[in-house]
Structure prediction request, 236 residues.
Amino acid sequence: MRGAAGDEATSAQEDDRKRIFQSIADFKGYFQNAIAVRRKERCDDLISSLVQAEEDNQMLSSDEVLSMVVSFNLAGNETTTNLMGNTMLALFDHPEQLAKVQANPSLIPNLLEEVLRYDAPVHLLFRRATQSVNIAGTAIPEGAIVLPMFASANRDERKFSDPDHFDITHNTEGHLGFGAGVHLCLGAPLARLETRLGLEELLPWFGELSRPEGAVERLNSFVVRGPKTLPLSFRA
Prediction:
């Protein structure tokens, strides 16, 4: 029999599930309403552009527009925000690397690629096997759902020297922070640009910033990785 503690934990998990499903429903409902409004009255925004998009005289369905809007919102916001947060954390945790990039700001692009290798904002994705395959002695049947952890590949010592060490001068060629091949992230150039511009603005202020001691609370997610909050102190 479960004790009181077990019952409380189960109840808390059920409450979390209800809250998550309600949040998803609210999120979708907000954009469904926005799409319906744009079908009646176009605006100068992304949703209006998707609503009026045509290919061979076929309009995108409301479900297709919704899927794209949700993908753009999540992939174009959450990931870049957490890339910046992980970059800030890495620099505070490795002051010698911060000193390198402060002395030579042209290393900012190298810094971003190393963060994408070392602590990317997304570490895994769900995939469905389109055919049966055997990988490293493990049989994966057609139709199986798998979770490729490309963050693990980014720490592969056969590919990267001293992979568990954060070093902005690392050779990061071939990292999978944005995927690869036909699955390469379409927003990768924009994410790199946004984060680079943000760091160029923040870098001169790093000497006046400090992070309180202690562990940083991470997002409660097994897909997106980043700090939930990142309190900083500013020395005037």
Residues 1-60 form one domain.
